[in-house]
Design a protein that fits this description.
Length: about 550
């Protein structure tokens, strides 16, 4: 795609500069919020180890007491199922429970995992709609309160049905932080720093992908883990004081006065002096039209190119999470040692450093292609090896490369749709990813398959992912829509077209450099050129399908 004009910087960068203490503060707070990803342990319940719990019994003559059964001698040896347990939370809180999921049927563990992922999928969509309608901060507040309350409720819950219900509710209401913090950072960062800040914010989530299950298994029981998550939520309540609303969202919704107030305070923190009459003004009549424009997800999909872009990225999320879940279950269904986790961390750091170095020369979508190939090939081929050093090394490389793919798609996806329904689309992508994991878990755990079938399935998924990598649009050092050519993918009024800022008291020195949100410099592109410009060719498989359908029609005529 050719680039016409200059790459735009939004009004936040225009006022605050490319990076400053305010941007760093928002980044650190957002990164801390993403540590909630470590407390989604119910998504992988079937990979967790049984807790250290004591079976309580009043029988006399007990000589063998296990987690789920009691063996005692009374004229004859009898084995009875345990019906009551005592669990020690944090080492000093004693809880008595009459139901333990680890002593139920194995299907209960799988059901809890699938319910958790289903709740997370629904929550991501709902929170995306709320964030685009009411702002980024409100869903984060609901998420934090839910983490505190529902985490504590789950710790004390003593019923199978109620436990499943609260697992679903916790996943539903505590799914905002895992992606809305990334949206916020995308909307306050400059083009030059956006990739770096997004990687910093995503780091806790990337670590959770690898270390959540081992960390949960290192604690005595999941009740202790839930209590730690609730206590951490109290810290988030304090951090919310420094979590701002997105200036870009405020502008999209016509809240210009609130945007001015927010940027004025942020400029003060960055050491930038603005006059008391600091103003942000729409500098083009189209910007006023945009403020009244209502964009819906269905209306957004009426343009062919943007429809293909959405379909491509959603399918990518489904298939990649399917592939990742296959690798994840394969690794953590075995005994994971500390040495293996250290190897994964070392190789992950090495792969990350190489990716950062290559990103200066290679576009994101080419890096995505490289890591998808490595992850897919190793995930499929590792089944051919026995449990030895070579297999462990290949699994470590696959895990490190797979985490890098997660980092890249978390960075690329929100930047493909820098419009007023960005959070909704990003949330739908996360929901699609959870759907891919649900399909993977269902096939792996509930449907008996041999290694050959799994290898063929993973190889096919990898091939499709490779093809999708080349259909992803370039977002290096920018967001879409950005330049004139991007309007073939988005509505002309999908962003406020131009904003001007007055940062000094003197009207004669008013800074009227227009930051173009939907196309390049107007000085280089006249309205006549815009009207006469040929539209972009359809992306995706439209031309191939047209050729194929033409061949089919000709064959029918011959008959």
């Amino acid at each position: 795609m050719s680039i016409i004009g200059t790459i735009h910087e939004d009004v936040t960068t225009d006022v605050l500069g490319k990076i400053g203490s305010w941007q760093w503060l928002v980044t650190m707070v957002s990164a801390t919020m993403l540590f909630t990803a470590f407390f989604n342990q119910h998504e992988d319940m079937f990979l967790l180890q049984p807790p250290n719990a004591l079976c309580v019994t009043d029988k006399i003559g007990v000589y063998n007491n296990t987690l789920c059964s009691v063996t005692y001698f009374n004229n004859k040896t009898e084995i009875l199922k345990c019906k009551e347990w005592q669990i020690k939370v944090m080492g000093f809180i004693n809880l008595e429970k009459s139901w333990l999921i680890f002593c139920d049927h194995k299907l209960a563990l799988i059901s809890a995992a699938l319910l958790s992922r289903l709740g997370s999928a629904l929550g991501c969509i709902i929170y995306g709609l709320i964030a685009d309608r009411f702002g980024r901060k409100i869903p984060i507040i609901i998420n934090v309160i839910s983490e505190i309350t529902l985490g504590a409720v789950l710790m004390f819950c003593d019923s199978k049905l109620w436990s499943f219900f609260f697992v679903f509710l916790k996943s539903l209401f505590a799914s905002a932080n895992i992606y809305l913090s990334l949206v916020t950072v995308c909307e306050i960062a400059s083009n030059e720093w956006r990739s770096r800040l997004c990687f910093i914010v995503a780091m806790p989530r990337l670590l959770a992908y690898v270390y959540m299950v081992p960390l949960t298994n290192s604690l005595p029981n999941i009740e202790t883990y839930s209590l730690i998550g609730s206590m951490l939520g109290l810290l988030y309540l304090i951090l919310l004081r420094w979590y701002p609303e997105s200036p870009q969202w405020l502008l999209f919704n016509g809240m210009i006065h609130k945007t001015e107030k927010l940027l004025f305070m942020a400029a003060k923190r960055n050491g930038i002096k603005l006059c008391n009459d600091f103003k942000i003004k729409p500098a083009d009549h189209k910007a006023y039209y945009c403020l009244d424009q209502v964009t819906t997800c269905l209306g957004f999909l009426t343009t062919h190119n943007v429809r293909v872009t959405c379909i491509v990225i959603v399918i990518f999320w489904i298939l990649y999470n399917f592939l990742w879940s296959c690798l994840y279950v394969q690794i953590y269904s075995e005994v994971v040692t500390s040495l293996f986790l250290l190897e994964v961390f070392s190789l992950g750091c090495l792969v990350a450093c190489l990716t950062i170095i290559l990103s200066a020369k290679i576009p994101f979508k080419h890096l995505l292609f490289i890591h998808v190939v490595v992850t897919g090939v190793l995930t499929a081929c590792v089944k051919l090896f026995d449990k030895n050093t070579s297999r462990r090394l290949l699994l470590s490389i696959a895990l490190g490369s797979g985490i890098t793919v997660h980092a890249l798609i978390l960075n690329v996806t929100p930047r493909l749709f820098a419009i007023n329904i960005r959070a909704t689309i990003f949330g739908c992508c996360h929901a699609a990813g959870q759907l891919g994991s649900i399909i993977s878990y269902t096939i792996l755990l509930l449907t008996p398959t041999n290694n050959v079938t799994q290898i063929c399935t993973e190889a096919l998924v990898t091939i499709v992912l490779i093809g999708l990598c080349f259909m992803v649009l370039d977002v290096d050092r920018r967001e879409l829509p950005d330049v004139l050519e991007d309007m073939d993918y988005f509505s002309e009024l999908s962003k406020p077209l131009r904003w001007a800022t007055q940062k000094t008291n003197s009207p004669s020195q008013e800074e009227t450099e227009m930051r173009v949100h939907s196309f390049g410099s107007a000085a280089q592109v006249t309205s006549m050129i815009f009207e006469d410009r040929q539209p972009a060719k359809p992306i995706g498989c439209a031309r191939i399908w047209k050729l194929f359908s033409g061949i089919i029609r000709n064959l029918r005529r011959l008959h």
